[in-house]
Amino acid sequence: MMIKTISYKLFRAISIVSILTLLLNGCDGKIPGIPGGDARKFPDDPKKRVQQNLEEGRGFTINKAIGDMTSGGGFEFASSNELWRASLDVIDFMPLSSVNYSGGIIITDWYYDNADPSESIKISIRFLTNEIRSDALEIKVFNRKCRDNLMNCKITESNKVLVSEITKEILKKAAIYKKEKASKNRKAKKTN
Question: What domain range is 66 assigned to?
Answer without folding.
Answer: 43-72
